[in-house]
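Dear colleague,

Thank you for sharing your sequence with our group. We've completed the structure prediction you requested, and as agreed, I am returning the results in plain text so they can be pasted directly into your records. Please verify that the sequence below matches your submission; if there's any discrepancy, let me know and we will rerun it promptly.
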Amino acid sequence: MQLCWSQQPTTATQWFQKGLTLIDQKQNYQEGIKALDSAALLNPPLPMLIQVKYAKAVALNSQGHFTKAASILLKNIPLINRCDSTKRVRFHANNYRALGDVYKSKGKHLLAMKNYQKALKFSEKYSKKSSALILHQIGVLLLERENYYEAENYLKKTVDAYLTPDLKLGVHLNLGEVYSKTNRKNKARLQYDKAKKMAFEHNNQVALCHIYIGYANLFFEAENYNKAIEYYEKAITLSKNLGAQLLTTSSLLHLAIAYNKTKQGLKAIPYLDKAATFLKKEPSLNYQLNLYNTYALVYENVGDYEKSILYLKKVATVKDSLFNTKKNKQFEELKIAYETKKKQQEIALLRLQKKKNELEISQKEKTLKTLNLEKELEASQNQNTILQLQKDRGENESKIILLKQSRELAKTEASKSQQLKNAYLIGFVIFSIPLSILLLVYYQKLKTQKELAKNQKELNVKQISNLKKEQELKNIKASIEGQEKERKRIAQELHDAVGGSLAGIKLQLDHLSSKEPKLSSIIDHLDETYNQVRHISHDLLSKKIANQQFTQLIKNYRQKIAASTHLKIETSFFNESLINKANNTIQTHLYKILQELINNVIKHAEASIIEIQLNAHTDIINLLFEDNGKGFVYNEEMKGIGIHNIKERINLLKGTTTIDSKPNHGTLVNIVIPIKSQPHDT
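Please find the predicted structure tokens below.
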């Protein structure tokens, strides 16, 4: 049922749909919860009431209201038990998973794992997609417990076939954090870049908050604290607008740590106080541990050792609660339970297969015994038949003698008739053999001609296709070469003709300047004009972007390629002004690299779409180039001219490149170029 926003909902279903739209699509939690409350007041059917309460609890958890969310989900359990078996399995899987998320947010890892295990039990009967989501959440839980490699293993269990777009985004985001924590920075940045692209595509503002925190953490680890602070502040602004208080708290804690690192401890304390205010309302052991630890470090740096020691004691208390030995043991047992259960199921299946094989063998033995009895019976019957035949044989022998005599007479007559027939048959065969050979030769000739015509037709089609591609490339190259030649011609004309004339005039005036003092100002002006002409001629030879922005030059080139080929080329720029400020050396090489990549796609890839993403940060420029072509098996030893030229240019710029390509899966090229280390324009 579709509902127009100008239309006021009147039924429980309409209010429920409006609430889901506000929460999922617009991420307006406050208004979404009000709409869900309106749906609950209209006495909806039991299945809808359960879903309304579940959606409200998920929204409250996103806002950081853990206690309320847990209360609603616990009250939902007896309601779900009243449903039929199909709905009961589905609702329990979702409800226990959401309850696990709430306890994970509160830092109660043991309770979180217990509820995830319950959710897995139901989801395995219900949906592989649901199981994938729960495995992902267990991975996130292990990530929070700093079990990074186990977390990576669980995150990779969430197979792509069973992931929604939002869950794929979550996998990229959390793998980014795993790689960041295990010092695989390039892999982490690549995962965050993929997550950011998906977040913008699906307008997922909550995910964008996490991505900003991820980028900030990478800058923090690289000791670029100012850039880290910039991204933490972005995350705080966005999470406040969404009403996601837990995300705001996380960003406040990170921001305080960054300020403390830059020796601005007094500036960090107000942010810690704001985080502490929220955690008093909704305690979370993980965040409290982080808060107290940061307080201790800040007060130590500002010289207030008494408060620092006080907070260190609080850190020890929370650690005892969070990493309690007994609880850790229970958590590990629960974590292993899922894998153990899987192994037990495999053993049970093997035992069933063994019993099945034993029954089949037993059945075969019984069948063999039956066959042996049948054979013995048949042998006995055959013996009786032989005796009867021997008796009949004596009677038949006398009849056979008489028959032989009559047969001899018939044989003589038949022999004469057969000789006549053989004569006719031999004549027919002698005539048929050459005729058959002629027909066979003619048929083979027709078949060969047909095959040759078919092969020639296929060859012509391929040649036409190759000629079209070559012509497209020739047209593009001719256009570019024409522009280069025209620039070179104009530059030479300016340098040789106009510049030469101006130089000659200047020499003549130099001889007269000693006689006429007023000429000195004219000579200076002429000197300036000569230098301008010389500078313009040099620019025309060295720069293709003299009169336009670099990003606009790429857009123009994209339009030119799209107009002359069947390719659809999509471009996007992040921090466009910084891209256009990059020095001429970087811009020239990037432009040539893009030309080489696009030419390779036209020649070899058989692609229909190219995506170009150019991102600029304070110290790097990042080019992401992706096509949907047939791909290839890439290795570092490849000696193609195109790839060799690209790598040479990137080496000149002191950059790095990653090429990811597989047959039938397209190609992704990721290029990172440092900005500060580049030589100035010459």
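Summary note from our side: Confidence is low (pLDDT under 50) at residues 1-6.

Kind regards,
the structure core
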